[in-house]
Amino acid sequence: MTIALQYTNVTVNDVDESIAFYGGALGLEVQNDVSSGKYRWVTLGSEGQPGLGIVLSEPHAGRSKKDGDTMQELLVKGILPILVFRTDDLDATFEKVAASGAEVLQEPIDMGYARDCAFRDPSGNMVRISQE
Amino acid sequence: MTPQELENLAHLRRARDLIDRDYAKPLDVPTMAAKALMSPSHFSRQFRAAYGETPYSYLMTRRIERAMALLRSGMSVTDACMTVGCTSLGSFSSRFAEIVGETPSEYRSHEHEAVEAMPTRIAMEVTRPARNKASRNGEATGDTAA
Predict the structure, then answer these.
(1) Do the beta carbons of residue A63 and residue A81 sit within 8 Å?
(2) pTM of the model
(3) Longest alpha-carbon distance in chain B
(4) For residue range B98-143, what is the model confidence (pLDDT) as tens digits?
(5) What are the residues whose beta carbons fall under 8 Å from the beta carbon of B110, sequence distance 6 or more?
(6) Per the CB < 8 Å rule, is B17 touching A13?
(7) What SS3 class is residue B139?
(8) Burial level of A35, CB count in 10 A (0-12/13-18/19+)?
(9) How far apart are CA B80 and CA B110, in angstroms?
(10) B14·A103 Cβ contact <8 A
């Protein structure tokens, strides 16, 4: 019996502006784009990890107004859980994401067990990128 | 929330990120407020409403958190105080004791084996001091680590 992560969800304020970050800057590819009512669920993935989909959706997608509002407040305050990506070229990745205009939280530094850097995505999620 | 309210929250987040990034520099509230595009008094009220403590309090909590790591690594109390951006040993020590529950030198003299065995990022989360919670501070003081 095996088990592996297949989908993980990332809450964002604006799906299109987030595709520019996760797709254009980080280099993930859009694999699926599903709409229901006024909301979209966009799945991105990478060749480096086939079989894992990162699903972007807005705070109110599939939620009550009240829960969506709570989610959005936490998102914009920067309180939602962080995402950590792995790369084989941290400096090149950092330069590319920084050049896209993303908010830089930390330039690449040695953390002892790895080097890493950190950004905010356009909505306020903390995105760390690590190289072992 | 209105677009304006969301925009204000994003400004507050950027000021909080500035504190996280530049805590060791001589940061003052007007500098933080400028990052949030607000007047200092309005900024302080808004920051507290969003994050549960004043900007200055958040800055000091962040400095104490970093000082705890430095003290665990064996740095002297005076050096740790200066390294995290505090200029007064007296106010550093009293703030440290208020948050951690013991003085910096008492904290420094403990064994911190469990924290040292953790990956850095996990140790940061586990030992992160907070004013409005008590649930994990036992680990930070070394009670469960010993």
Answers:
(1) no
(2) 0.84
(3) 51
(4) 999 999 999 999 877 667 666 666 677 667 776 654 444 444 444 4
(5) B141, B142, B145, B146
(6) no
(7) helix
(8) exposed
(9) 16
(10) yes
DSSP state of A65: H
Instruction: Report ipTM (2 d.p.).
Output: 0.92
The whole-number pLDDT of residue B135 equals 43
Specify the pLDDT at position A27: 95
Write out residues 53-112 of A within 8 Å (CB-CB) of B: 69, 72-73, 76-78, 103, 105-106, 111-112
Owner of token pair 């905010």: A120
Residues of B in contact with A106 (CB under 8 A): 21
- Give the residue from B39, B19, B20, B37 showing the smallest Cα distance to B28: B19
Q: Interhelix angle for B3-22 vs A65-77, to 10°?
A: 30
For B49-102, give the DSSP string. HHHSS-HHHHHHHHHHHHHHHHHHTT--HHHHHHHTT---HHHHHHHHHHHHSS
